[in-house]
Amino acid sequence: MTTLLRFLFSAIGLLVASALVPGLGHGSFLDLLIVAVILAALNTTVGSLLKLIAIVPMACSFGCFSLVINGLVFWLAGTLSSRLGLTFTVSGFWAGFFGALVTSVVASVLGALFIPKDRQRPQGPPPPIKIVN
Length: 133
Prior knowledge:
Order of helices and strands: HEHHHEH
Distance between the termini: 38 Å
Helix content: 55-70%
Shape: globular
């Protein structure tokens, strides 16, 4: 259920980003839900690979280069979704950069407000390992 809520919050973030950022276009809310799934898949695969390749610029910029990578992945998601026939469009890198920034902020705030703390990732040290003889 938490995963479905996160996709819903990402779709709402995409809707807000489309309203605020020039260069982003959207159609129906169902298209935005599909784009949220595409974006999650691309972040998991391509985004992780790009962050691994760009480990030196990420370290030199104290992780701020990950914003550039997120913008590129967002732009790729817009290009891929328009080729799949969805009505979500991203006009360029800067639209992708600011779209990714707005989407992540909105989705994070909604997640913090509506997902209970016990359902979020556990904070603190992991439980101790029990050794059984």
